[in-house]
Amino acid sequence: MYKKHKIVKFIMIILLATLTSGVYAASNISIMYGNKSLDKGDWEPVESQTEFGLGFEYQKPEWPAALVVTYLSSEDSETISGIKLTGETTELGIGARKYLVEDRARFFVEGGLANISADVSVSAFGVTVSESDSTIGFWLGAGMDFMVGDAFSIGFLGRLSNASVTLFGVDAEAGGTHLGVFAAYHFD
């Protein structure tokens, strides 16, 4: 339920930004697939999580950087001796992206704030116990975006995020290292 609420917030932010955009603004919406690596000491055996994401970028010509809104969701499950452990995180971030080169291949750096959430559940013998927490953290990243035609691009990115949560009475790092590829549709 919590994740669905965040997705609705993300979509509302995209719609608001799109509806209030001027004629002379560049925007894109992207999908991302990759991996999020969390602190092994906090998350083993579910520290390497498959990650999916959505992104929205908006920039007016006079702005030095683009506004970026991202939603990332990662998850991994492991079963050991009949006990299933599942770890999940979500990140709803807002920040800025600065392109260092304006060409068909564009390198960028980015960063911002994120609402980072974590959820851990343990299931055994038909009983599931779970704990979740959410906090504000930050993210920094870099990547490359390559235009394929006039409206589409593909790229890759690396990102570091940081935020501490408390799960089952233990402080844990919910941020991590993100590596992924993305595809974007550009509209003006």
Explain what this protein looks like in three dimensions.
The protein starts with a helix and ends with a strand. A hairpin with a 2-residue loop joins strand 3 (66-80) and strand 4 (83-99). Helix content is 12%, strand content 68%. The model has no long low-confidence stretch (mean pLDDT 89). With 188 residues, the protein is mostly beta strands. The longest helix has 18 residues, at 2-19. Strands 1-2-3-4-5-6-7-10 form an eight-stranded antiparallel beta barrel.
Quick gist of this model?
This protein is mainly beta and 188 residues long. It has helices at residues 2-19, 40-43, and strands at 26-37, 48-59, 66-80, 83-99, 105-124, 127-148, 152-162, 164-167, 170-173, 177-187.
What gross morphology would you assign?
Answer: elongated
Structural class by secondary-structure content? mainly beta
Distance between the termini: 34 Å
Instruction: Give the count of helical stretches.
Output: 2
Query: What oligomeric state best describes the polypeptide chains here?
Result: single chain
| Low-pLDDT residue intervals, each spanning 5 or more residues | none
Main sheet: strands, sense, barrel:
8 strands, antiparallel, barrel
**SSE string, helix = H, strand = E?**
HEHEEEEEEEEE
Widest β-sheet, arrangement of strands: 1-2-3-4-5-6-7-10
How much is the average pLDDT? 89
> How many DSSP E strands?
10
Percent of residues in helices: 10-25%
Q: What portion of the residues fall into strands of 2 or more residues?
A: over 45%
Radius of gyration: 18 Å
